[in-house]
Amino acid sequence: MTPNKEDYLKCIYEIGTRQEKITNKEVAQLMQVSPPAVTEMVKKLLAEQLLLKDRSVGYILTDLGLKLVSDLYRKHRLIEVFLVNHLGYTTEEIHEEAEVLEHTVSDHFVEQLEKLLHFPKNCPHGGTIPAKGELLVEKTIPL
Ligand SMILES: [Zn+2]
Questions:
Q1: Which of 20, 41, 91, 110 has the fewest CB atoms within 10 Å around its CB?
Q2: pTM score
Q3: CB atoms inside a 10 Å sphere around CB 30
Q4: Topology annotation, domain 63-142
């Protein structure tokens, strides 16, 4: 499967939680794509103002980019809770399934899902689930 825009933003966010400087090479490694593929995608992300490029820090997510990433984490983690609580998945099985579903479910679906699950604050791995429209602030360190 070719990684999409959302996967790149998440990848850049994840690198940013571990270190200060984010380079093309690191994104390419983590995404398992070629550096030119990263350059190509980064051009789009810069044009859409989801990302900024800083000479010393490398890539930085804009507020818009951060919002999009937070929303993805929200979807991903609510889906994880659903899979464990209602479909009998084990914690080991849910990540991959949620990776796919997070890109396909609508905002409305996620709101309904959140209600059904009684507004959980954490995913089964311990990651924080941001409320609708809020930025992700990791309160616990996910495994
Ligand atoms: Zn999780």
A1: 20
A2: 0.87
A3: 17
A4: Arc Repressor Mutant, subunit A (1.10.10)
C-alpha of residue 114 to centroid of ligand 1, in Å? 15
Class of domain 5-61: mainly alpha
Q: How far is the CA of 36 from the centre of ligand 1 (A)?
A: 30
In three-state secondary structure terms, 71 is helix
Q: Do domains 5-61 and 63-142 have the same CATH topology?
A: yes
Tokens of 118: 């009684």
What residue segments make up the domains of the chain, in order of their start? 5-61, 63-142
User: What are the pLDDT digits (tens) for 23-43?
Assistant: 899 999 999 999 999 999 999
Q: Ligand 1: distance of its center to the CA of 125 in Å?
A: 4
- How many whole angstroms from 130 Cα to the centroid of ligand 1? 12
Asked whether the predicted pLDDT for residue 1 surpasses 60, the reply is no
61 phi, psi to nearest 5 deg: -75, 140
Q: What is the mean pLDDT of residues 123-128?
A: 94
